[in-house]
Amino acid sequence: MLKKNRLWFRSALLAILVVAVGYTIYNSMNEESGTYISKGNTAPNFVLTDLNGKQVELEDYRGKGVFLNFWGTWCKPCEREMPYMQRQYEKYKEQDVEILAVNVSETNVSVKNFVDRYRMSFPVPMDKQREVTKAYGIGPIPTTILIDKNGKVVERTSESLSEKKIISFMEKIKP
Amino acid sequence: MMQTITCECGHSNPYGTSLCQACGKPLKQDVEVLSSMRYEGSARRSQTYKQTFVDKIWNFFSSVKVGVWLIVIILVAAAIGTIFPQETFIPPNVDPATHYESEYGTFGLIYYLLGFHNLYGSWWFILLLGMLGLSIIIASLDRGIPLYKALKTQRVTRHDQFMKNQRLFSKSNDVELDEIKYTLESLRYKVREEDGNLFAEKGRFSRWGAYVNHVGLIIFLTGAMLRFFPGMYVDDILWVREGEKASIPGTSTEDGQYYLENNDFILEMYDKEEKKFNSALSSVDGEVAKNYQSNVTLYKTKENHTIGAEPELVKVKNGEIRVNEPFKFDSFALYQTDFKLNEFYKMSFELEEKATGNKFGKLTVDLHDPKKEYDLGKGYKVKIEEYFPNFVLNDQNQPSTVNNLPDNPAFVFSMYSPKTPDGEKAFVGIQKNIDSGENQFKMSFAGIETKDLTALTVRKDHTLWIIALGGIIFMIGVTQGLYWNYRRIWIKQNAGEVWAAAHTNKNWYGLKKDVEFLSDKTNLTPLEEKETASK
User: Fold this and answer.
1) Residue B440: helix, strand or coil by DSSP?
2) Residue B466 has what pLDDT?
3) B535 in a domain, yes or no?
4) Do B364 and B329 fall into the same domain?
5) Is the pLDDT of residue A1 over 70?
6) Full domain range(s) for residue B397
7) Are residues B364 and B396 in the same domain?
8) B535 pLDDT higher than 70
9) What is the C-alpha separation between B9 and B153, in angstroms, rounded?
10) Among A10, A34, B122, B358, which is 20 to 30 Å from B116 by CA?
């Protein structure tokens, strides 16, 4: 066998394995989201009724950046980031960034009290049946998904957010 | 062209070969014939030259030492993953960050911080498996191909050096070659003849056992890898309350999303009074479960269903799910996994005047969707100010809720009557009814409704047959290599003498019996075992 052929064969075999293992690792990192809602993918459309009885549909926000947050009243880190989100919402609303704070399967009474306490003015879609939560593969809350003006997912994180982080997120998805 | 070594027999061998592929002559001065026999003295491809970066990687993974270390590391890691439960198996609704520490102490915290709570899906574990796969492929290619070539090109006539240095060897005179040939064939050896020399071999295919086994392993690992590819594998859990419908995770496609309705969850116990079971059950405390069953109905939405929208459902079929009797549709199977009996569903209260005990109407609160206000008529009404589905006093001694499950519901009610138009407040929970002490009215408990929940495992697995195939091939390879062995006997005419030599890759006892049989039946001098030279 020619030396050159051998080099080609070896390089090709190594390349195939690197790609296969790399792809597997990439998928395992996104495994939490059953539908692979992660960076670069289009966020699937959903429609939910918000706390005020209004229909909220994700596709209606095309052209705007969407800060999609999943939360619950009983979750301490969620509670911590709410005032920061509210403050930044007021600043970035004019710059076409919208916050959708999807509540995971709670009652209107509990959520209403919470929303009044923190004076939240952004829409709070109520995911009573956990349909969106399931489809988006949400594990621990809070989980925040950043969606750009074209409906593409820019970032997905389950950390509790500082105000600084929220500002940087807003800048990221500003159209 | 690569450098080659031409043996005196005329065969040209690849660079690095220690025993000629054809006649077995040692090609270097210091070659030990016997210890070179494992791979027929063939050149391990990678060892022959070191040049490019790719070759260096190749050489690294070609080493059996590296392979063994990879196996050891994977074994240790996999064992560590079993010390504490993996993240998948800790209760839902708990934060893993605190769960491991509170449950298992400092070690639990370290375990969590090092990421061992999600070990088998972690990038480094997959990387290790990938490296092991690479090591298996490269090491097999590097050894298997030269071995195959050496065994294929081997000649009947072997070099004197090769013969003399075998572990079993003898010299005889006056031997009937046909007799030897006949005897060997009766032992089911395949015998070849060349210039009055004989070569008998048996079980060559056992030498491929290790490589068949490795092919099986690679297929197995590929199957395991494919589980991470979209659409190949789903393993999820679905909780459904009786009488409710829920979307089945992982079943969403363009033609719609599957929903499942839980019509009834059934838990049956063995009857201790029944004669048949009486003696078996008498030694058991408590009850023994006989059946866990969910009666379900499968639905599918119309095409292009928007997540979250009220689904337009079309009934597909009914089914019953019992342990080990899954409910199947498309490539999915639903298994009975868990249940929760008597989850609180609705709570009823009556508005009561403390002094008289008179009641002014009843209200029923849906714990999953309580109303803000309940009008009882004639100026009597009750408002829910606060609702805690799973009540607890938090660190600041404030009432709050652990999660969103109504396991310990508690309310702050405001009660209005014509006598108390400004309203009176009371905190009401399970076995709790606290007010300021001056209230004229109270909420008295008037009953509770409960519902059962069933938990089903949603499973789709397109990789199982690949993994099974890999496993079967693996076992074939193991059997092939372990239960058979490659025996060879050489007979060479040498200046009036007849030289005999024999070799096997394992089971020397079996080979010795063969050559004893041979010398018994013929005039061949019994082959003697050479003292294996200790290093």
Assistant:
1) coil
2) 96
3) no
4) no
5) no
6) 346-444
7) yes
8) no
9) 12
10) A34
Alpha helices per DSSP H over chain A: 3-29, 76-92, 108-117, 131-135, 163-173
Residue B282 scores a pLDDT above 90 = no
Hey, are the CB atoms on A74 and B402 less than 8 Å from each other? yes
Assess if residue B357 is contained within a domain. yes
pLDDT (average), residues B348-361? 89
* Chain A / chain B CB contacts < 8 angstroms: 122
Each residue's pLDDT tens digit, A47-83: 999 999 899 999 999 999 999 999 999 888 898 999 9
Collect all residues of chain A within an 8 Å Cβ-Cβ radius of residue B250.
34
Nearest Cα of chain A lies from the Cα of B241 at a distance, in angstroms, of 11
> Which has the minimum average pLDDT: B60-69, B255-264, B397-406, B497-506?
B397-406
Cα Dmax for chain A: 77
Separation of alpha carbons A60 and A78, rounded Å: 25
- Nearest CA distance, A93 vs chain B (angstrom): 25
In chain A, domain spans? 1-31, 47-173
- CATH C-level class of A47-173: alpha beta
Tell whether B251 and B296 lie within a shared domain: yes
Nearest to A47 among B228, B308, B401 (CB): B308
Kindly tell me if the per-residue pLDDT of A32 is higher than 70: no
Residue B229 with chain A: CB contacts under 8 Å:
23-24, 27
Report CB contact under 8 Å: B130, A20.
yes
Report CB contact under 8 Å: B252, A135.
Answer: yes
Segment holding B234, helix H or strand E: strand B233-241
Shortest distance between the Cα of B402 and any Cα of chain A, in A, equals: 6
- Taking an 8 Å cut-off on Cβ atoms, the answer to whether A108 and B386 are in contact is no
- In this prediction the ipTM stands at 0.81
DSSP string, B138-173: HHHHHHHHHHHHHHHH--SS--HHHHHTSSEEEEES
- Of the three residues B461, B488, B518, the one that is the final residue of a domain is B461
- With CB atoms and an 8 Å threshold, state whether B249 touches A20: no
**B198 within some domain:** no
Are residues A107 and B387, on separate chains, in Cβ contact within 8 Å? yes
Chain B residues lying within 8 Å of A14, measured CB to CB:
54, 57-58, 134
Measured from the Cβ of residue B158, the count of other Cβ atoms closer than 10 Å reads 26
The shortest C-alpha distance from B107 to chain A (Å) reads: 23
